[in-house]
């Protein structure tokens, strides 16, 4: 598996909403051939590959196969001369989390000892990871660390998810040092929101999420830094994962642990796709509370001017969003009962921000 431009264009050309035909085709084309006969699939569709070579292997790696695309199909992908990957018009790239899948496949090909899970339905609230946590607690108890490769940017080793601690500072510092090189610079980051490893914090001491080089996830202008991804793949194959410290006790609540799994619960009554949109907008609102307003403002642009959202976004990209309005919007989105209610919460935020800031 060589990450040539031709391969990258093909790999990211598949739009992969959960349980779609193109997600399954993509899995059969790119994932299963790398696993041989040594894989199995659980009832949630998660793909397991056990490459632990002795009882000393206590590392779990995860990445998810689905994307936020609303419909299955193919898309045209381009690679700029600076090795930035993007979609040639249309929807998001799907580097969230195709880039993470490439990291896992590279680790498997390098025969790095660990347990690997390609999770399903992460974008709809971590359904596959929840199934693992609920159904296989004995399996999860066999690991000291769970590492997801599903973080935007190029520098994060996530220490907190869902407003709670997921790994110790000692672990994050050691992993940041192990990942850093002449090409890479990583550091602990406490601004994580949610990925699959958040579901394992009650069973596995050290759970984190690593930046894989994508930006503007879930949006038409999503990009992937291919230079960073290739450097990360080279680096992770050389790390002694079992030497990383285990300092966090999952049975002892951390003083700053505010994690509330309610925000990411997938309820069957919303299986018509509403929660998919709800979780996207909710996550964008949480990012905005943390200081990154870009994705939330794009959602607002889509509501205010659905015919020309990019033009609307160009007008409001720097709109100030007061913290009290963001917190109210987060609550409204969390308890919204359908897409219309989510859109109304976004429109209310837009109107209130204009009123408060006299923004034009």
Task: Describe this entry's structure for a reader.
The protein has helices spanning 5-11, 21-35, 95-109, 127-135, 137-140, 169-179, 226-236, 274-289, 294-304, 309-316, 323-334, 339-357, and strands at residues 14-15, 39-41, 47-50, 59-64, 73-74, 77-79, 84-87, 115-119, 145-151, 156-158, 160-161, 164-165, 187-189, 206-211, 214-215, 223-225. It is α/β, with parallel strands linked by helices. It folds into two domains: 5-243, Aminopeptidase, CATH 3.40.630; 267-357, no CATH class. The strands form five sheets. The protein has a six-stranded mixed β-sheet with strand order 2-3-8-4-9-14, with helices on one face. Strand 11 (160-161) and strand 12 (164-165) form a beta hairpin. The radius of gyration is 20 Å and the shape is globular. Mean pLDDT is 89; it is low at 259-275.
Strand-helix topology:
Blueprint: H1 5-11, E1 14-15, H2 21-35, E2 39-41, E3 47-50, E4 59-64, E5 73-74, E6 77-79, E7 84-87, H3 95-109, E8 115-119, H4 127-135, H5 137-140, E9 145-151, E10 156-158, E11 160-161, E12 164-165, H6 169-179, E13 187-189, E14 206-211, E15 214-215, E16 223-225, H7 226-236, H8 274-289, H9 294-304, H10 309-316, H11 323-334, H12 339-357
Parallel strand pairs: 4-8, 4-9, 9-14, 10-13
Antiparallel strand pairs: 1-5, 2-3, 3-8, 6-7, 7-16, 11-12, 15-16
Helix pairs in contact: 3-7, 8-9, 8-11, 9-10, 9-12, 11-12
Keywords:
360 residues; alpha/beta; Aminopeptidase; 12 helices; globular
Biggest pleated-sheet summary: 6 strands, mixed
Kindly state the number of beta strands: 16
CATH class of the largest domain: Alpha Beta
Number of domains: 2
Uncertain runs are: 259-275
Strand content: 15-25%
Individual helix count: 12
Class by SSE composition = alpha/beta
- Principal-axis shape equals globular
Residues in helix, %: 25-40%
Q: Numbering strands along the chain, what is their spatial order in the largest sheet?
A: 2-3-8-4-9-14
Mean pLDDT equals 89
Order of helices and strands: HEHEEEEEEHEHHEEEEHEEEEHHHHHH
CATH superfamily of the largest domain: Zn peptidases
CATH architecture classification name of the largest domain = 3-Layer(aba) Sandwich
Cα(first) to Cα(last) distance is: 50 Å
Q: Radius of gyration from the CA trace?
A: 20 Å
CATH topology of the largest domain: Aminopeptidase
């Amino acid at each position: 598996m060589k990450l040539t431009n031709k391969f990258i264009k093909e790999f990211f050309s598949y739009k992969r909403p959960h349980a779609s035909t193109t997600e399954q085709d993509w899995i059969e084309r790119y994932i299963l051939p790398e696993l041989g006969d040594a894989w199995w699939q659980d009832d949630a569709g998660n793909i397991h590959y056990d490459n632990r070579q002795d009882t000393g292997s206590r590392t779990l790696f995860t990445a998810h196969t689905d994307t936020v695309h609303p419909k299955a199909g193919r898309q045209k992908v381009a690679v700029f001369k600076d090795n930035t990957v993007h979609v040639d018009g249309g929807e998001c790239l799907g580097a969230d989390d195709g880039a993470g899948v490439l990291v896992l496949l590279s680790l498997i090909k390098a025969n790095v000892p660990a347990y690997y899970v390609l999770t399903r339905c992460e974008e709809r609230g971590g359904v596959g990871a929840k199934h693992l946590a609920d159904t296989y607690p004995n399996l999860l108890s066999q690991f000291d660390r769970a590492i997801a490769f599903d973080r935007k940017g190029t520098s994060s080793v996530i220490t907190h998810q869902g407003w709670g601690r997921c790994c110790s500072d000692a672990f994050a510092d050691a992993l940041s040092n192990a990942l850093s090189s002449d090409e890479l610079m990583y550091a602990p980051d406490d601004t994580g929101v949610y990925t699959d490893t958040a579901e394992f914090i009650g069973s596995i001491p050290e759970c984190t999420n690593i930046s894989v080089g994508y930006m503007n996830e879930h949006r038409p202008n999503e990009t992937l830094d291919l230079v960073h991804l290739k450097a990360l793949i080279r680096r992770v194959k050389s790390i002694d994962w079992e030497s990383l410290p285990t300092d966090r006790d999952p049975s002892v609540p951390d003083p700053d642990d505010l994690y509330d799994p309610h925000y990411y619960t997938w309820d069957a009554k919303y299986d018509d796709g509403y929660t998919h949109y709800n979780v996207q907008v909710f996550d964008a609102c949480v990012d905005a509370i943390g200081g990154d307003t870009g994705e939330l403002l794009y959602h607002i642009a889509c509501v205010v001017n659905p015919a020309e959202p990019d033009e609307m976004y160009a007008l409001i990209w720097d709109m100030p969003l007061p913290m009290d309005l963001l917190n109210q919007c987060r609550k409204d989105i969390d308890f919204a009962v359908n897409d219309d209610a989510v859109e109304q919460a976004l429109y209310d935020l837009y109107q209130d921000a204009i009123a408060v800031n006299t923004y034009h």
